[in-house]
Amino acid sequence: MAKTIIVSNRLPIKISRNENEQLEYQTSAGGLATGLGSIYKEGNNLWIGWPGLVTSKKEEKKEITESIGKESMFPIFLTEDDIRDFYEGFSNETLWPNFHYFTQYAIYEPRLWEAYKRVNRKFADEILKKTEPGDTLWVHDYQLMLVPGMLREAQPELSIGFFLHIPFPSYEIFRLLPWRRELLNGVLGSDLVGFHTYDDMRHFLSSASRLAGLSSSQGLVVVNNRQVMVDSFPMGIDYDKYAEAAASPGALEKEVYYRISLGDQKLILSIDRLDYSKGIPQRLEAFEMFFDRYPKYRDKVSLIMVVVPSRDSVGKYKELKEEVDRLVGRINGKYGKINWTPVHFFYRSFPLEELSAFYRMADVALVTPMRDGMNLVCKEFIASKINKKGVLILSEMCGASKELSDAILINPNDTNQLVEAINEALTMPEEEQIQHNTNMQNSLKRYNISHWVNLFMKSLTTIKEMQHSMQTRHLDELSQEKMLKEFSKANERLIFLDYDGTLTGFHSDPRDAKPDDELKEIMQNLVKEEKNKVVVISGRDKDTLGGWMGEFDVTLIAEHGIWMREVEKDWRTVVPIKGDWKKEIMPILEMYVQRTPGSFIEEKDFSLVWHYRKVETGLGELRTRELASHLKYISSNSNLQVLEGDHVVEIKDREVNKGRTAHQWLNQTSHDFVFAIGDDATDEDTFKAMPQEAYTIKVGSKTSAARFNVNSYKDVRALLKEMIAEG
Fold first, then answer.
1. Same domain, 342 and 412
2. Percent of the chain that is helix, strand, coil (3-state, to 5)
3. Could you say which of 362, 392, 487, 512 has the lowest number of CB atoms within 10 Å?
4. Is residue 509 scored above 80 in pLDDT?
5. Does 660 lie in the same domain as 646?
6. Who contacts 11 (Cβ-Cβ below 8 Å, separation ≥6)?
7. Which of 653, 677, 707 is the endpoint of a domain?
8. Confidence bin at 30 (pLDDT 50/70/90)
9. Same domain, yes or no, for 162 and 296?
10. Is there a single domain that holds both residue 711 and residue 628?
């Protein structure tokens, strides 16, 4: 029975040793654990990850594996070196600062990258041991970006989803990473890549295009004959859990206790993990400025600041903790009185019951990270507001700001704006607070954690169905064997071959694509067999094609079917064509060449081609859309056709296409085996002209009218060699 496997760096459980060196198990209460509990605890589903304890004892490993196995979890044990170099090193000192735009803190050490690859491989190997055909895998977060690619390589048919829980940076930031392409290709081993926001999705697609040369259309990226869907899925919370916790007798009791201790104060709440991305010092500086600017609030407003300890032995985090201590001390020393403390600072975590009391009590919540993937604290605060009173001040730099637009949104780098936002929040009328919180609560109820999980899994199913419904399927061993048998039995074989991208690879200068020794040998052996009638059908001009392929006994069709040269005959035009339209189009193409460094024009007898292979990635695609749109507009009332190929835009007479000429050739030639192969949009006409039983093959990975596809020109050459061997 097929199962779903959740994979994350940490399991939703923490294992530690007590005073007696016995193992203790504590279940995680995090949002991810809550949301995915509905998946991994069903049937024979599984959650794979590190259990949070380093051990080399076989007995302990066995005990842990058996204990958590009963809870549908499977442990991957990491060593001290793994934790230091993979987790604390590459994950948190290279990826984390880069992805959060703190590039000045990022370190780029090959040793840490090797550790990251090693641990990702360890995860992939263990996952594969637990994986069976038909299983679905959902890999989570930045620590495991290489895992999807490793899984795909081992089992190409797997259904794999990947979700990034932190921001994905802009192309300009991401490209600073020396290993950016490997990370992209790792993530693109997935079928579905999810982010919290549209901005993160857009940045990822931009990096995929500019760093890996993979263009996208409507969020779909084509990778090695697979469509990969990239989309945004804002993560929600378990709304009922926080609303119920806030209404519990325990939370109410704690609130009463805290209020008696604090006295008659307006309370501002701040809850964060210790991290430089959270903007904690900037928040404290704004709070200090607030008292300077609005002295009337002294004695009347206090800040409850909860900072959860995190990596405070690491240099940057130790410095951050010292800075926070210094700022808290300065504010309390500057404004504090015996009966009033401006900042109540807690450097520890709190259980949900006490957090709920804080949420209930707070008049204002300050959630102002410098950069954050989603940030669930703001959502928990809103869900806990049973009386709907309270104001959320939210950084526009975190993902939740896209959903909680009724909050007071601020730029965390603008201290003045934050000061004014605190004043606005403290003076906001209750009716307005209730209206804003009602709107946000309705949104959080609808888009809760279950909705997030269901939407992601449904989208993963959708993309797999799309992949399976593609007309073109890969030429597997069984299909190739069947084709070669039919080829071997046939006496009159008709073989249509495209040239660029099919018989040879692409070059930045199209003139460099002339046949190499391997291709020459293939062509000589192919035409040597009398049963084979070979037609090279190309968009190249007749002089170039004739110069490169003229030495072989093949029929040549140039400029997409305008010119034909049969064996031992001269070139002739297949249909009468005029080229007088070129004088109107040429100035337009020349204008685009002037605007686009690296582009150039190729003039053929009856078509014009704008090449942009040498143009900067991104600019070329932008100019292509402009040019194609421009040409289609001015040619709408004429008999011209605009074709977008691989880094080219071509305009030609609509009467001419490869398919029409190929069809004529089919009708005048007897055959009992037909084979056609090509890589371009122009080759689709050839495929459509072929009889149903013909073997039509697309080179590359886009949806095609061809029956089969192969990945590259290298596969084409290997296939032709197999055909030659069959005789």
1. yes
2. 45, 20, 35
3. 512
4. no
5. no
6. 28, 47, 48, 49, 50, 51, 52, 68, 73, 75
7. 653
8. low
9. no
10. no
The catalytic position among 141, 200, 498, 541 is 498
pLDDT at 497: 93
Q: What is the tens place of the pLDDT at every residue in 283-341? A: 999 999 999 999 999 999 999 999 999 877 778 888 999 999 999 999 999 999 998 99
Chain segment 216-268, per-residue pLDDT in tens: 777 888 887 688 999 999 999 999 999 999 999 999 999 999 998 888 899 99
Among left, alpha and beta (phi > 0; psi -120 to 50; other), residue 532 is: beta
pLDDT, tens only, 404-451: 999 999 999 999 999 999 999 999 999 999 999 999 999 999 889 988
Domain membership of residue 465 (yes or no) is no
* Domain limits for position 45: 4-232
C-alpha dist (Å) from residue 108 to 208, 315, 605: 21, 17, 53
Q: Is residue 550 located within the same domain as residue 590?
A: no
Cβ neighbours of 597 (radius 10 Å): 10
- 304 close to 347: Cβ distance less than 8 angstroms: no
470-487: per-residue pLDDT in tens? Answer: 656 778 888 889 999 999
Residue 185 and residue 272 in one domain: no
SS3 140: strand
Specify the CATH number for the domain of residue 561: 3.40.50.1000
Of 183, 200, 232, at which residue does a domain stop? 232
**Does residue 547 sit in the same domain as residue 586?**
no
Residue 498 bears catalytic tag: yes
Q: Is 672 part of any domain?
A: yes
Whole-model pTM: value is 0.76
CA dist 677 → 152, 490, 549, 565 (Å): 27, 18, 17, 19
| Mean pLDDT over the full length of the chain | 89
Measured distance between the N- and C-terminal CA atoms of the chain, rounded to whole angstroms: 46
Q: What pLDDT was estimated at residue 334?
A: 95
What CATH number corresponds to the domain at position 269? 3.40.50.2000
- The enclosing domain of 633 has a CATH number of 3.30.70.1020
pLDDT exceeds 80 at position 156: yes
The pLDDT-based confidence of 572 (bands split at 50, 70, 90) is confident
Q: Count of domains in the chain? A: 4
Strand partners, 71: none
